[in-house]
Amino acid sequence: FAIDRTTSQYRVYTTDFDKPCFSVTPSQPTIVQELKVYTSKERYKKDPRTYKLEGRDTPNQEWTLIKEGIFPTNNNRNELDLPITDGSHHFKVIFENTIAYNEYRVSFPTNRGNSYWIAMADLQFGGFLVSGINVKLTSPYPDGAVCGASTDCKSELCNGEGICASNVLVQ
Question: The whole model's pTM is what?
Answer without folding.
Answer: 0.71
